[in-house]
Specification:
Structural class: alpha/beta
Strand content: 5-15%
Low-confidence stretches: 214-297
CATH superfamily: NAD(P)-binding Rossmann-like Domain
Mean pLDDT: 77
CATH architecture: 3-Layer(aba) Sandwich
Distance between the termini: 28 Å
Largest sheet: 6 strands, parallel
Strand order of the largest sheet: 3-2-1-4-5-6
Length: about 300
């Protein structure tokens, strides 16, 4: 079930799930946008419409979904941006950003948590939740709330074997952003398909060890809330990063296996430096070549 399915990111997520043969419930406010997805993926996509900022509309949506069956995976991709400095903002500006970016995730997660058993939920936050950017306060507050919602919900739903994760992309390469942003920022934008690939991976049983939010940084990020001696995956897009919150001590023999591209993996042996999580030394590839920086596939 993909909520916010007709935007640039939402459409890319639909494409990613359809490519692997999943049946999809695509939800958005626009009937025309949903109809286009149904036409593109006949027999694969079932569309529905709802004002996802409204608790009542979301509850009614899920009552309709109950007739189809409880989805195994739920993706909350609804969101939007309205610029404005704190001193110049209006109550409506603040309420709109919270409703659109946090309220949509909250009400959908609430409805999903009451029904799901197993599977997972993926929310879409933003790098703005982590980095202070003038003119984006209300948006940043809302997206920070999405991260905290994800963390708490992951803890609450662990007993039901439901995983809850968030992706935290920087600027997404969309037509609207290309028109509104300087060229130097657009050049650093992340393609929607890259983020969709991360989300699609999180919505698989192969990612069952990943739940909650740790220390996301830049670009599409996967975060692992608890240390495991080995984390394996497949199908991560090139350039993905992994945040691993760790405690004090060092682990010279632990390895992080990161396939990139799929099917041709390599291992990054590493040790942790201090309690702040700084690397004591750069990781090394399996053939002994050294590397530096983040764990980047």
């Amino acid at each position: 079930m993909i909520l916010g399915a007709t935007g640039a990111l939402g459409t890319a997520i639909v494409d990613a799930f359809a490519a692997r043969g999943d049946r999809i419930i695509a939800v958005a406010r626009s009937r025309s946008g949903v109809s286009q997805l149904e036409s593109r993926y006949r027999g694969v996509v079932s569309g529905d419409t709802a004002d996802l900022t409204s608790r009542f509309a979301v509850d009614e949506l899920w009552e309709r979904i109950d007739r189809i069956g409880v989805p195994r995976w739920v993706v909350n991709a609804t969101g939007g941006f309205r610029p404005g400095k704190v001193a110049e903002s209006t109550p409506d500006d603040f309420a709109y950003m919270l409703d659109l970016n946090l309220g949509t995730a909250w009400w959908s997660c609430r409805a999903a948590a009451r029904r799901m058993h197993g599977g997972g939920i993926v929310n879409v936050s933003s790098r703005s939740a982590l980095v202070a950017e003038p003119g984006a306060a209300a948006y940043a507050v809302a997206k920070a709330g999405v991260i905290k919602l994800t963390e708490v919900l992951a803890a609450e739903l662990k007993v039901s074997d439901i995983r809850v994760n968030a992706v935290v992309p920087a600027i997404i390469d969309t037509p609207a952003n290309r028109q509104a942003l300087p060229e130097k920022l657009v050049a650093k934008a992340v393609a929607p398909g890259e983020i969709a690939a991360v989300i699609a991976y999180l919505c698989t049983d192969a990612s069952r060890a990943i739940t909650g939010v740790g220390d996301p940084r830049l670009r599409p990020v996967l975060t692992c809330p608890s240390w495991r001696p080995e984390v394996r995956s497949s199908g991560w897009p090139r350039g993905s990063q992994i945040g691993l919150p760790v405690g004090p001590g060092s682990w010279d023999r632990n390895r992080l296996a990161v396939p990139a591209p799929p099917g041709r993996g390599f291992e990054l042996p590493f040790r942790i430096g201090d309690t702040a999580g700084r690397l004591g030394r750069g990781p090394r590839f399996a053939d002994g070549r050294s590397a530096s920086g983040d764990f980047v596939a």
